[in-house]
C-alpha cells in the first residue's frame, strides 16, 4: 500500500438550524495556511443516541458526482460519536465507485476531542486521518 502523508490542521465548523438540523463543515488547512479545495459537509439530526442524515444525498458538492444508495448512521455515547457513511459515486463517465467513510470522535473533555477518520474507495484505503480537536469560539 502506497500513499502520501499530509500534515496540517482541521477546522470543523458546526451550526444548528432552527429545525434542529446539525450542519458540519470540515476544512483541511496546510502548514502554509492555505485551505484545501475539498470541504466535507454533513447534514445530520439526532434521534435518541443515533445520528442520522438529514435530507437526501443525491450529489457530491465537491465533485458534482451523482450519489446513489446513500446510508449514514452514527452512534452517540456519553463521550464518543462513531459515524459510518456508505454510498456509490457515479462518475461523469458512468463508472461507479463504492465509498465508505468512517469518523470517530472521542471527547476528552467538553473542550477537547480526538478524531480519527478513514475513506475507502472500492474497498481500498484512500485516506486515514487523526487529529486532536479543541473548541474555539
Automatic annotation (TrEMBL):
Give the protein name, as stated in the record.
Uncharacterized protein
Amino acid at each position: 500500500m502506497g500513499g502520501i502523508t499530509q500534515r496540517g490542521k482541521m477546522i470543523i465548523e458546526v451550526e444548528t438550524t432552527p429545525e434542529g438540523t446539525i450542519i458540519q463543515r470540515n476544512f483541511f488547512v496546510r502548514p502554509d495556511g492555505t485551505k484545501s479545495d475539498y470541504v466535507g459537509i454533513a447534514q445530520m439530526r439526532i434521534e435518541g443516541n443515533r445520528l442520522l442524515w438529514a435530507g437526501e444525498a443525491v450529489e457530491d458538492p465537491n465533485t458534482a458526482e451523482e450519489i446513489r444508495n446513500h446510508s449514514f448512521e452514527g452512534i452517540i455515547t456519553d463521550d464518543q460519536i462513531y459515524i459510518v457513511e456508505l454510498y456509490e459515486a457515479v462518475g461523469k463517465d458512468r463508472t461507479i465507485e463504492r465509498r465508505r467513510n468512517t469518523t470517530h470522535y472521542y471527547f476528552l473533555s467538553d473542550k477537547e476531542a480526538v478524531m480519527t477518520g478513514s475513506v475507502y474507495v472500492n474497498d481500498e484505503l484512500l485516506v486515514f486521518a487523526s487529529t486532536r480537536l479543541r473548541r474555539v469560539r
